[in-house]
Write a structure and sequence with these properties.
With about 150 residues, the chain is an alpha+beta fold. The chain is about 60% helix and about 15% strand. It is built from 7 helices and 5 strands. Strand 4 and strand 5 (about 105-110) form a beta hairpin. Helix 4 (about 70-75) crosses helix 5. The protein is elongated. About 10% of the residues are buried. Mean pLDDT is about 85; it is low at about 1-10.
Length: about 150
């Protein structure tokens, strides 16, 4: 007599469907190590701020040198008013900060994390554009995935 396979637990209702996980261990590992909802919200807000070409041009310029609104307007080819509007959004998201020198306000990056994020985005874009293989550190993820696949067998 063939042993009946028991359904995997837990089951989840998603969009009205009852889903049974294929790999409950992987689901639990991801759930327990994933970021909080609050952190996810902050990350999404930051990426939304980076989703505008003018803001990205401003940030690239500020990576090189602290600049005032007028100089940024000249560099990114938009009005001073438009630059001020974008800087306010970036400041509200703590991506840039300001420093007053007399009657001129200079803007700079709030911290160095953005430069690292931009560099990684450039690497990714370059790899996609030129079809370059992954960096070696990506293989860590591939190794982890292969190890899990082996454990399942």
């Amino acid at each position: 007599m063939k042993k009946q396979q028991e359904p995997l637990e837990p089951t989840t209702r998603t969009g009205g469907l009852l889903l049974v996980p294929i790999d409950p261990g992987a689901i639990e590992e991801v759930r327990s190590s994933g970021p909080s909802e609050e952190l996810l919200s902050l990350v999404v807000t930051m990426f939304q701020a980076l989703g505008d070409t003018t803001r990205v041009k401003i940030l690239y310029a500020l990576m090189r040198h602290p600049l005032c609104v007028r100089d940024l307007a000249i560099l990114v080819h938009v009005s001073e008013s438009a630059v001020s509007h974008q800087l306010r959004l970036l400041r509200d998201r703590r991506l840039v900060r300001q420093r007053r020198v007399g009657n001129i306000i200079y803007y700079s990056l709030d911290d160095e994390h953005l430069a690292v994020l931009f560099r990684e985005a450039e690497y990714h874009a370059d790899h996609v554009h030129q079809n370059i293989p992954h960096h070696p550190y990506v293989s860590i993820f591939e190794e982890r995935s292969a190890r899990r696949d082996q454990e399942r067998l």
